[in-house]
Amino acid sequence: MFCKVKASYFFKKYLYCKLCPRRCGKNRFFEKGYCGETAHLRVAYVGPHFGEEPPISGRNGSGTVFLVGCSLKCSFCQNWQISHKGIGRKLKIKELVEKIDRMINEYQVHNVNFVTPDHFIPHIIQVIEQIKANWPAIPIVFNVSGYQDVGILKEIEEYVDIYLPDFKYSDKKLATKLSSCPDYPSVALDAISEMIRQKGFLDIDSPVAKKGVIVRHLILPGHIDNSINALSMLYVEFGKELPLSLMSQYTPVLKQKEQELNRQLKKEEFLRVYQHMLDLGFKNVFVQFPEEVENESAFVPDFTSSQPFKGNLKRLKKGFDTKQLL
Ligand code: SF4
């Protein structure tokens, strides 16, 4: 059971913010944190999304809620318009709940999928309380960078059903260079470990997931050793049953200082990582093959458009228009 006392307890966390492992300590009622956000909830997109793994998107789509800002701010972020530039709008909790209610009603999405919610957890907890009062069976997904605070994860255990964490870097130097985050590998492994303790592994064969964890890894062009070591670390920590999503959709959206990152992944790079994953014996996997990436580029978002994901358009039934949702 949820209780209001807990929600207001969470709200105090904006006073001296340590919601993420940056722990920058800002009073977000008066200033922005490293994540770029104050204590005003800001949202960039609410709508069905078909670009997630099959048990998350299902037939009707995942009910995504893209929050503005990010505590990681990777230099290559596909969502840079919202994570770096801050495109989005302020919403009251009640307004967001109404939009999510409408999304569930009109689209019958299979879950409510909060994308990068960490820095707005005090708000999101209150949103979840109200959504669960109306839709007790709908799974709540936290779609996160992997750079989460274990203490905060323990506190929100009862609110989340599915975690979709990234494991971006095994290499501290690369994590420092691209995300100013030297402690990413160890912090992310601890965070994923806590997520698995809470929810277990996601059943990747179920048509619509209800609970569990699946770890995502995006292969970066020119950084194949980072990927190979990332898979090895995941294998050592969690074993070969760990559900994995291996992604090759990297698309340069911002000019990168490092030339290698201004191109897409080569097929031979993908195959080296893929082969290592097979050699380790991972079997609960979703793999995005490079030849599929052209289609996947339809899911590189443009948050200045009323439908940021072009790939969603052909999957939405005629007459449905997500413009109305935000
Ligand atoms: S959530 Fe934002 S303000 Fe809070 S600690 Fe992290 S970066 Fe700083």
Structure, explained:
- It is a single chain.
- The relative contact order is 0.14.
- With 326 residues, the chain is of the alpha/beta class.
- The strands form two sheets. The protein has a seven-stranded mixed β-sheet, covered by helices on one side.
- It has helices at residues 4-11, 54-57, 80-83, 93-107, 121-134, 150-155, 172-179, 184-199, 224-238, 267-280, 293-296, 310-313; strands at residues 42-49, 62-67, 89-90, 112-115, 140-144, 162-165, 212-213, 215-218, 244-247, 285-287.
- The protein has a single domain (41-315), classed as TIM Barrel (Alpha-Beta Barrel).
- The longest helix is centred in the middle third of the chain and has 16 residues, at 184-199.
